[in-house]
Design goal:
Elements (H helix, E strand, L loop, with lengths): L1 E5 L6 H10 L3 E6 L11 E5 L5 H8 L4 E4 L20 H13 L6 E5 L13 H9 L2 H16 L4 E7 L1 E3 L7 E4 L9 E3 H11 L8 E7 L1
Parallel strand pairs: 1-2, 1-4, 2-3, 4-5, 5-6, 6-10, 7-9
Antiparallel strand pairs: 8-10
Helix pairs in contact: 1-6, 2-3, 3-5, 4-5
Length: about 220
């Protein structure tokens, strides 16, 4: 299977790429800065932007599935830092994906969103809700919700993954899967664990059409 990976140069995306190649998938990546990726026999690198239909169409050729780890980035991790990407970057990208998948016979999409998006906002700690509402983090959460809604309206075999707070821990821990806040998620998950879950989700038919929050056990 060939996967189109969007967001491969990000802090979580690089783990998705590494694990997908480790599992033997062929991977196409659409990135703005190809020099940030290391060449690999099973990796095809395309320069471009997922909001550009022509760039996306070229990268989709020959793919059977998509994993999107795109996000709205800021100039730093400071919640009030300026945005580097447009406020509608995620939903614009998803609209392009939806418009083109049928031309490429792509039926499986795994989308990385975030715990606290949509109806799960009430489930996150108060201090986190306040930070989202009062800082530039809110734009990512609002646009994650919009791209989720766009994807749910399609007939595609999607899985929406909502990681809790992402960390760079390397210790191997189990993953707790939560639907409708049951069981209640823990507060942290490693980027590596989240990446492995997303790649493994491609072959899990039982979670197609579902939205799952993930945290470390």
């Amino acid at each position: 299977m060939r996967i189109l990976l969007l967001g491969a140069t990000g802090r979580t995306g690089k783990h998705v790429l590494s694990y997908a190649l480790e599992k033997g998938y062929d991977v196409s990546c659409l990135v703005r800065k190809p020099e940030r990726l290391t060449q690999h026999p099973s990796l095809s690198i395309f320069e471009g932007n997922p909001t550009n239909p022509k760039d996306l169409q070229k990268a989709m050729e020959g793919c059977q599935a998509i994993i999107s780890v795109l996000n709205i980035s800021r100039t730093s991790d400071f919640p009030w830092a300026k945005l580097r990407t447009p406020k509608t970057f995620l939903s614009d990208s998803m609209s392009n994906i939806i418009n083109q998948v049928t031309n490429h016979n792509i039926k499986r999409i795994v989308l990385c969103s975030a715990w606290g998006v949509g109806e799960t906002k009430k489930d996150i700690p108060f201090w986190f809700r306040w930070t989202i509402d009062c800082s530039n983090i809110k734009y990512a959460y609002l646009n994650h919700e919009r791209q989720e809604n766009l994807l749910r309206k399609t007939g595609l075999g999607y899985t929406i993954v909502r990681p809790v707070g992402l960390t760079n821990f390397n210790k191997k821990l189990g993953v707790r899967e939560s639907e409708s806040n049951q069981p209640k998620p823990n507060l942290l998950i490693s980027r590596k664990a989240a990446a492995r879950f997303m790649v493994d989700s491609l072959e899990r038919e039982e979670i197609q059409g579902k939205t799952i929050a993930i945290s470390n056990t």
